Amino acid sequence: MLSDLPNLLTLSRIVAIPLMVVLAAFRTPATDLAACTVFGLAGITDYFDGKLARDWKQTSDLGRMLDPIADKLLVAAALMMVIGMGRMSGPSLYPAIVIMLREILVSGLREYLAGVRVGLPVTRLAKWKTGFQMGALGSLLGGDTAAPLVWLQFLPVTLIGELMLWVAAALTLVTGWDYLTAGLRHAAAPNPTIPNHEA
Fold it and tell me: Is residue 183 part of a domain?
């Protein structure tokens, strides 16, 4: 149900997006730190909503639908903010593109495999990818301007965020390939029972 705590945590991730965007748009040290904090808290809910749903046996079709949507909306919004507001250097655009393309690829594969009643389990490597990705985007949202507010002025926060983004992109390529080969394997199976969709 929508009122179950795991689903509420998932919805809170979606609600956090406009708040994060508005805070980042002010471009002051305090609001940069606040945007980073909102993004970080939203990212933490991604862990707890799934864990609580499993532990409390509150898994539902609604939760399974909303969870990946919330994840992708949050990541896409954060990526667009750090790119559009110049929060990272030009070369870091490439790992950002890789990450966005992978999100679209996996979404398409999950939709197809759901049609043939095949699950696409999240691998341990994919969880590492998510960790680096969330850490990178949080760092880039905060940036070097927010660092003095938390006594981290000695750290190159933006550089650290960009390096983490490259690591996330490398893991994205590996996990994306794994998911793609799994999807192609099922697509090549005889008589796949999937409705015809046109986009």
Answer: yes
CA 97 to centroid of chain Cα atoms: 13
The reply to whether 197 falls in a domain is: no
Find the domain containing 50 and state its range: 5-187
CA 24/CA 126 separation, integer angstroms = 27
164 CB-near residues (< 8 Å, 6+ apart): 132, 133, 135, 136, 139
Q: What angle do CA 167, 172, 177 make, to 5 degrees?
A: 140
pLDDT in tens, 57-72: 767 767 677 888 888 9
pTM: 0.81
Question: How many domains would you assign to the chain?
Answer: 1
Residue 69 inside a domain? The answer is yes
Q: Residue 60 corresponds to which tokens in the numbers above?
A: 């539902």
Instruction: Decide if 176 is inside a domain.
Output: yes
CA 123/CA 186 separation, integer angstroms: 18
Tell me whether residue 68 is exposed, middle or buried, using C-beta atoms within 10 angstroms of its C-beta: 0 to 12, 13 to 18, 19 or more.
middle
Shortest CA distance to 162 belongs to which of 103, 61, 69, 94? 94
